[in-house]
Amino acid sequence: MGKQEWRLILVLTVICVLSGGVLGWVNALTAPVIEEQRELAKQRALQKALPAATTFVEEEALPKELESLGLEGIVEVHRAYHDGEEKGYVFIVDQRGYAGPIRMAVGVTPLGNLSALTVIDQSETPGLGAKIKNDKFLKQPAFQEAQVGAELAVKKDRGEVDAIASATISSRAVVRGVNTALSAAQSLLEVETTSGGEGVD
């Protein structure tokens, strides 16, 4: 191998090392900002899912306990309060959509009524499945009137939920997330009624 080849290898190596260093430096600068934005987005979603609450306390042990009951997809559980008074729960739930996971926040009141839901993150088809984040879909009567003990389904599956046209898979994913949150809320509320809210057995 001649001097020219060695010089080229050396130059390319230096470029790679410098590029890696710059990328690492940029990542170190932007990572905290990105994480902060994600946290802000989550807090907005919690507030939107249960507007009656102002404070949300994450119950870190509950997702695994609920999973042991067969409730899959619950990522986080937040107990909601306003001026020290408990206002219910907000569940962060992941469900598989058409193009990838759909993350949503589902609020449930102490009486077991669905307060509201919002989509935090999704990668569904623009103009089709991505419409799951629109209020027209999320605020339809079937969701607004839902409560624990209910099992929602899209109209194509003989249910009450109006699915988004040409995006049934995405719509079903949201419905599954709501059903999971309602079932989880039912379990937690039953435990609180019988044992004073000490947790899931």
Kindly describe this structure.
The chain has about 200 residues and is α+β, with helices and mostly antiparallel strands. The chain has one domain. Helices cover about 45% and strands about 20% of the residues. The protein contains 5 helices and 5 strands, in the order H-E-H-E-E-E-E-H-H-H. The chain has helices at about 5-50, 60-65, 135-140, 140-145, 170-195; strands at about 55-60, 75-80, 85-95, 100-110, 115-120. A 5-stranded antiparallel beta sheet has the order 1-2-3-4-5, sandwiched between helices. Strand 4 and strand 5 (about 115-120) form a beta hairpin. The longest helix is centred in the first third of the chain and has 47 residues, at about 5-50. Residues about 195-200 have low confidence and may be disordered.
